[in-house]
Design brief:
The structure holds 2 protein chains of 2 kinds. By secondary structure, chain A is mainly β. Chain A is built from 4 helices and 30 strands. Chain A has a 4-stranded antiparallel beta sheet with strand order 1-30-29-28. A 4-stranded antiparallel beta sheet of chain A has the order 2-3-4-5, with no helix packed on it. Classes of the chains: A mainly beta, B mainly alpha. At the A-B interface, strand 21 and strand 23 of A face helix 18, strand 3, helix 21, helix 24 and helix 25 of B.
C-alpha cells in the first residue's frame, strides 16, 4: 500500500485495526482524530506522522469530533456519547442514547455537542456540565427516522436520516425543524455536509449521486439546486454505481471532495459544475475525508465500509496527502466565492 | 700470560703462608692430626667448589657468545637470501678460527651493512611499486585508491625481482602512453565528428569524463573512459551515417528537382556543398557543420520549397494538359470523359493525396487516346461539318425565301442571290449527304463497336431525326405550296372580280441581315427545331459543389457525434433542476407506476426483516422475468440490495432516473429496478404510514447492518406515538 506514496499521499503508521468510521482534522493544528470499529479513537499528528493518543471504548466508535485542540467527543455503538481529554488521557461519558450513536458534532456557535442516533433522536449536550447526564443533556429532538448524518454551519444544523428525510434546524430554536425536506436523491442518504459559506448543503446517496441543495426556499434559490452522478464505472454499457460515503468541503475555496466505495476521491467545483481532479484509486472504499484547517492537507480513510457484508478486504489505512492548489481551486471563474 | 703469573704466584705464596699460619695456630692449639686432616679437606673442597662455579659461568658465557654468533649468521643468511645474494660464509672465508668474540665482532658490522642495504633495497621496491600502483589505478580506474601504502614483499627483495618490477613499470608506462594516444585519437575523431555534425565537442567529451573536457591537466585514460569514448564515437558515427543518408537523400532530390526545373546555377551554387557529397562515403565528409541539424534543415527547407514549386508547376502542367485535352475533345466534338473525376484528381493533387505525375500521366494517356480516336473520326466529322453547314445554309435559305423583299434592289442583294443559288444546290445534295454520312457512321460503328457520338449525342439518331424532320418539313412545305396555290387561285379570282391585288405583306421581323444567319449554335438548333442537342457543357458547378460537400457534411456529422460523445463523457456535473421536472417525469412514468403512496420506498416498518434473506431472494430472481404485477412485492427486496455496492443499473434506466426533460423510453428494459427508481412525490413526507403497509419496507445503512442493529417494534411504536 505504501508502494505509491506520492500518488496517494503519505500513509499514517499504526492505523486502526478495523473499519474507520470517521476522520477529522482539528481546527487548530494538523492533529487528526480517527474513530474506528475496533473500538478505538486515535489522535495522530498528521504532519509528523505520529500517534499522539489512543482511547478504547466499550463498542465500535461510529463518529468523533474535536472540541478544541486538546479534547474531543465520540459517538459510540454502546449508546454512549463520550468526552475525551487528550493531554490526560481521560475520558468521561457525556450521556446516553437508546441505540448506537451514529454521529456527533460540536457547535462552536452555541458551545453544544449535538449527537444523532439510530434511536431516531437528536440530542444536544452541554459539555461543561461534566458530571451527570441529567445536567449535561440540553434537549432531545425526535427525528422521523434513524439519524445517518449530521452537518453544521453557523447556526444551521442539517440532519439526514433513513427514509431520505432531511431536517434543517436553527440551533437557536431546536423545538422544531426550520425546514422538513426529502432528499432529492432516490436512494439512501450516506452523507450530508454544509457549504462553508452557509447557503446550503451537499448530500450523497448510496447510488453514486450527489445533490447540491440550498437553504433559500425562494424559487430563485431553489432553481440553483442540482444533482450529479459520480463514482460510477461504465462497463459494457452498464453502469456500476458505488455509494458516495464521504463529502469534505475545502475550507478556503469551497470546492469539495467526494469519496466513494470505488476507492476514488474526486474534487468538484460546485459553482461551475466541474470536476477539478481525480486522485488515483485507493486500495478500498473511501470511508471518510477531511481537509485540514488551511486546506493544505487532505486526510483520506481508505477502509472497507461493509457495503457488501462481511468479506475479505484490503487493510484499513489513512492517507494524508498534501493538496496542490490546482487540485482544489475553482477553475473558470476567478471569484472564489462558493455557493453564491 | 706473564702478567697473570705474578698474582697467581703471589696468591700461591699467600696460600702457603696462610697454611703455615694455620699450622702454627693448630700447633699452638694442639689440634689432632685427624682434625687437621679434616679441616684441610674442607678447605680443599671449598676451593674446588669455587673453581667449579667459575668454570660453569665461563662455560655459559661461551655458549651465549656462540648463540649470538649463530643468530647473527642466520640473520646474515636470511638477509642475503631475501636480497638474492650468495650467502657469506664467514667461517669458511677466513679459515683462521679466531676467538669467538673476534668472530662476533667481525660479523656484526657485516650485518649492519646488510641491513642498511636491505633497507635501501626495500625503499627502491616501494618506490617502484608505488609507481606501478599509481599507473595501474590510472589505467584500470581508481577503484583501488584506498591502498595508498604499498606492501613490499619482504621475503623477496632480489635484484631480479626489482628488475622484474622495473620491467612491469616500463610496460605500464608504455601502456599509459598508448592509452593516452588512444584517448587523444578518439578525441580527435570525436572532434572531427562533432565539427561535422555541428555538435558541442566539449560537452560530449565532458559527459564521457570531466577531465577530457579540460585543455590542460592529465586526461583520464581508464578503460572505462576509453570504452565510453568508443561508444560515443560509435553513436556519433551512427548519427553521422543517418544524417549523411538524409543529406544525400535530400541532395538527390535537390539534383532531381534542379534538373526538372532548370534551376539557375546561382541558385544551385548555394547548395553545391550538399550535392557534391552525394556519393561521398562516410569519411569523405569532413567539412565542419556539413551534417549539422541546421544545415540539414536548411537543405530540407530548400527541397521542400523546390518541391512545392514543383508541385505547383506540376499542377500547372496538369491543368494545361487538361485544357489541351478539353480543347481536343471540343474540336472533335467529343465529351471529355469523367470530367468530375479529373477535378477530383486535381483537388487530390492540391491536397497532396495523389502524385501529380501520376495524374499527368493519366491525362497524357487520355490525350493520346482522344487523339487516336480523333483520327478515326476525322473523316466522318468533316462530313458532319459539311452537313451542318449545309443545314445552316438551308435554314438561311428558308428564311431568305420567306423574305418578301428579297428581290428589292439594294446593297448586297446580288450577293444574297448568289448565296441562295449555291444554297439551293447544297440543299439538293443534302439527302445524299445524309445517306453517305449514315452509311459511313454505321460502318464506323460496326468497326469499332461503339456508338459514334457528336457532342455526346448519337450521330445516327441525329441523322435519323434530321431526316424525319426533313420529311415533315417537306410535307408541310408541300401543304403550304398547295395552300399558296389555292390562295393564288383565290387572289386571281378576286382580281378577276375586283381588279385589284393586295400588296405583299412586309414583314419586318423576317428581314435578316446576311451576317446574322451565318452560323451559330442557336441558329442551327433553330433550324433543326431543337432536334440537334446543344453541346452538353460539363456541369462543373454542381459537381464541384457536391464533391467537397460530401466530406464537409461528413465532417459536420462527425462533429455532431463528437459533441454527443463529449456530452456523455464530460467530467462536468450533469445537472438539472430536480423539483421542477420531477412532476413531468412522474407523468411520464405514470403509465407503469402505481400510485405514489404505495411505493414510498423508505418508510419505517414494524416487523423485523432478515435483510440478508431478502437480499438473497432478490438476487436469485431474474429481473427480466419480473412483471409489473410482481413489482410491488419485489419492492422491499429491492431496497436491501441497494445497500450493496456495485449494483448494476442499465444505462436505460440511468437515463430515466436523471431528472431531465429528455423523453424517456421506459419499457425497453424490463429491469424491475427501473420502476423503483421513479422519484417519490416531493411534497408528501411519509409520516403517518400504517405500519402494516410499510412493514415490508425497511432499509439499513451499512453501519447498521454491520453493527447488527435491528429496529425493534418497541422503537417503532415509540416513534409512532411521538409522531
Amino acid at each position: 500500500m505504501t508502494a505509491a506514496p506520492q500518488s496517494t499521499g503519505r500513509e499514517l503508521t499504526g492505523p486502526p485495526t478495523d473499519g474507520i468510521s470517521n476522520i477529522r482534522f482539528s481546527n487548530h493544528s494538523d492533529n487528526l482524530l480517527v474513530s474506528s470499529w475496533d473500538k478505538s479513537v486515535r489522535l495522530y499528528d498528521a504532519s509528523a506522522n505520529a500517534l499522539r493518543g489512543e482511547f478504547m471504548h466499550g463498542g465500535a466508535v461510529l463518529d468523533c469530533c474535536f472540541h478544541d485542540d486538546s479534547s474531543g467527543f465520540t459517538a459510540c455503538a454502546d449508546h454512549t456519547v463520550r468526552r475525551l481529554v487528550f493531554n490526560y488521557g481521560r475520558e468521561d461519558i457525556l450521556g446516553r442514547h437508546d441505540a448506537p450513536v451514529r454521529c456527533v458534532e460540536y457547535s462552536y456557535a452555541t458551545g453544544q455537542v449535538i449527537t444523532g442516533s439510530w434511536d431516531k433522536t437528536l440530542k444536544c449536550w452541554d459539555p461543561r456540565g461534566a458530571s451527570g447526564q441529567e445536567r449535561s443533556l440540553i434537549g432531545t429532538y425526535t427525528q422521523p427516522e434513524r439519524v445517518y448524518s449530521l452537518s453544521l454551519v453557523g447556526n444551521r444544523l442539517v440532519v439526514a436520516t433513513a427514509g431520505r428525510h432531511v431536517n434543517v434546524y436553527d440551533l437557536r430554536n431546536m423545538s422544531q425543524p426550520e425546514q422538513r425536506r426529502e432528499s432529492s436523491l432516490k436512494y439512501q442518504t450516506r452523507c450530508v455536509r454544509c457549504y462553508p459559506n452557509g447557503t446550503g448543503y451537499a448530500l450523497s446517496s448510496v447510488e453514486g449521486r450527489v445533490a447540491m441543495e440550498f437553504f433559500d426556499l425562494s424559487e430563485a434559490g431553489q432553481s440553483k439546486k442540482y444533482a450529479f452522478k459520480c463514482h460510477r464505472k461504465s462497463e459494457a454499457g452498464r453502469d456500476i454505481v458505488y455509494p458516495v460515503n464521504a463529502i469534505a468541503f475545502h475550507p478556503i475555496y469551497g470546492t469539495f471532495a467526494t469519496g466513494g466505495c470505488d476507492g476514488y476521491v474526486n474534487v468538484w467545483d460546485g459553482n461551475n459544475k466541474k470536476r477539478l481532479y481525480q486522485y488515483p484509486k485507493y486500495p478500498t472504499s473511501i470511508a471518510a475525508l477531511s481537509f485540514s484547517r488551511d486546506g493544505r492537507l487532505l486526510a483520506v480513510a481508505s477502509s472497507y465500509t461493509y457495503e457488501e457484508g462481511d468479506k475479505p478486504h484490503e487493510p484499513d489505512a489513512i492517507f494524508v496527502r498534501s493538496v496542490n492548489e490546482v487540485e482544489v481551486k475553482p477553475k473558470p471563474k476567478v471569484l472564489p466565492n462558493p455557493g453564491t | 700470560m706473564s702478567n697473570g703469573q705474578s698474582p697467581f704466584l703471589q696468591m700461591e705464596s699467600a696460600c702457603g703462608s696462610l697454611l703455615h699460619e694455620l699450622q702454627i695456630i693448630w700447633d699452638e692449639i694442639g689440634e689432632s692430626d685427624a682434625e687437621r686432616e679434616r679441616m684441610l679437606l674442607e678447605l680443599e673442597q671449598e676451593c674446588l667448589e669455587i673453581y667449579r662455579r667459575k668454570v660453569d659461568r665461563a662455560n655459559t658465557s661461551r655458549a651465549q657468545l656462540r648463540q649470538s654468533i649463530a643468530d647473527a649468521e642466520a640473520e646474515l643468511a636470511a638477509i642475503c637470501s631475501t636480497m638474492g645474494e650468495r650467502p657469506l660464509h664467514i667461517r669458511q672465508s677466513d679459515q683462521i678460527p679466531g676467538s669467538l668474540k673476534a668472530e662476533l665482532g667481525a660479523i656484526l658490522p657485516k650485518i649492519e651493512e646488510l641491513r642498511k642495504r636491505k633497507y635501501d633495497r626495500k625503499n627502491q621496491f616501494t618506490e617502484v611499486l608505488e609507481q606501478i600502483q599509481s599507473l595501474e589505478s590510472e589505467i584500470y580506474g581508481s577503484s583501488e585508491n584506498t591502498s595508498t601504502d604499498t606492501v613490499v614483499d619482504e621475503t623477496d627483495l632480489s635484484l631480479r625481482k626489482l628488475e622484474e618490477l622495473h620491467r612491469e613499470l616500463q610496460e605500464l608506462h608504455k601502456e599509459k602512453s598508448e592509452r593516452l594516444k588512444q584517448v587523444l585519437d578518439h578525441m580527435n575523431s570525436l572532434n572531427s565528428l562533432c565539427s561535422v555534425l555541428g555538435l558541442d565537442f566539449k560537452q560530449i567529451v565532458s559527459e564521457v569524463h570531466p577531465s577530457l573536457g579540460e585543455t590542460e591537466g592529465s586526461k583520464d585514460i581508464s578503460s572505462d573512459t576509453i570504452e565510453q569514448l568508443e561508444v560515443a564515437i560509435l553513436r556519433l558515427r551512427k548519427l553521422k551515417l543517418q544524417r549523411m543518408q538524409r543529406l544525400q537523400d535530400l541532395a538527390a532530390s535537390l539534383l532531381e528537382l534542379w534538373n526538372l526545373m532548370d534551376t539557375p546555377i546561382e541558385e544551385q551554387q548555394i547548395f553545391q556543398k550538399a550535392t557534391c557529397n552525394l556519393v561521398a562515403s562516410e569519411d569523405e565528409i569532413t567539412d565542419p557543420d556539413m551534417l549539422s541539424m541546421n544545415y540539414i534543415n536548411y537543405v530540407e527547407a530548400e527541397v521542400s520549397r523546390l518541391e512545392e514549386l514543383k508541385a505547383s508547376k506540376m499542377k500547372e502542367i496538369v491543368l494545361k494538359k487538361k485544357s489541351e485535352l478539353e480543347d481536343i475533345c471540343r474540336k472533335m466534338h467529343l465529351i471529355p470523359e469523367s470530367d468530375s473525376a479529373m477535378d477530383i484528381a486535381i483537388d487530390a493533387i492540391e491536397s497532396g493525396a495523389v502524385d501529380a505525375a501520376y495524374v499527368l500521366e493519366k491525362i497524357e494517356l487520355q490525350i493520346a487516346e482522344v487523339k487516336e480516336e480523333a483520327l478515326s473520326r476525322k473523316e466522318i466529322l468533316e462530313k458532319v461539318e459539311k452537313w451542318i453547314a449545309a443545314c445552316e445554309e438551308e435554314s438561311w435559305l428558308e428564311e431568305y425565301n420567306r423574305d418578301e423583299n428579297r428581290y428589292n434592289a439594294g446593297r448586297g442583294t446580288h450577293l444574297n442571290l448568289k448565296r441562295a443559288e449555291k444554297a439551293r444546290v447544297l440543299v439538293s445534295k443534302l439527302p445524299a449527304m445524309v445517306d453517305a454520312l449514315t452509311s459511313k457512321t454505321t460502318a464506323w460503328q460496326r468497326d469499332r463497336g461503339v456508338v459514334f457520338t457528336y457532342d455526346g449525342t448519337c450521330l445516327l439518331s441525329m441523322l435519323e431525326e434530321f431526316t424525319t424532320l426533313r420529311q415533315e418539313k417537306d410535307l408541310e412545305r408541300k401543304k403550304q405550296r398547295d395552300q399558296k396555290k389555292l390562295q393564288g387561285q383565290l387572289l386571281a379570282e378576286q382580281e378577276v372580280l375586283y381588279g385589284s391585288k393586295p400588296s405583299p405583306m412586309k414583314n419586318q421581323s423576317m428581314k435578316k441581315g446576311p451576317g446574322l444567319s451565318s452560323s451559330g449554335a442557336s441558329n442551327r438548333s433553330l433550324s433543326f427545331n431543337g432536334a440537334m442537342p446543344q453541346t452538353p457543357k460539363p456541369d462543373i458547378l454542381p459537381s464541384a459543389k457536391t464533391t467537397p460537400n460530401t466530406p464537409h457534411n461528413v465532417k459536420k456529422n462527425e462533429r455532431v457525434n463528437l459533441d454527443n460523445r463529449r456530452d456523455e463523457g464530460r467530467t462536468g456535473l450533469e445537472s438539472s433542476s430536480i423539483p421542477a421536472k420531477q412532476h413531468s417525469l412522474n407523468i411520464m412514468n405514470a403509465c407503469e407506476t402505481e400510485s405514489p403512496k404505495t411505493r414510498k420506498p423508505f418508510t419505517p416498518i414494524s416487523s423485523i426483516i432478515d435483510s440478508s434473506k431478502s437480499n438473497a431472494t432478490y438476487n436469485s430472481e431474474d429481473p427480466n422475468e419480473k412483471s409489473n404485477e410482481t413489482f410491488q412485492k419485489a419492492l422491499p427486496n429491492i431496497n436491501t440490495p441497494f445497500t450493496t455496492h456495485s449494483k448494476i443499473i442499465s444505462a436505460m434506466e440511468e437515463e430515466n432516473q436523471t431528472p431531465r426533460t429528455r423523453p424517456s423510453t421506459p419499457s425497453t428494459v424490463s429491469d424491475s429496478m427501473q420502476t423503483a427508481m421513479t422519484p417519490a412525490p416531493p411534497a408528501v413526507l411519509p409520516r403517518n404510514d400504517k405500519p402494516t403497509e410499510v412493514a415490508e419496507e425497511i432499509e439499513y445503512s451499512f453501519e447498521e447492518r454491520r453493527a447488527g442493529f435491528v429496529l425493534s417494534t418497541a422503537h417503532l411504536e415509540n416513534t409512532l406515538q411521538v409522531l
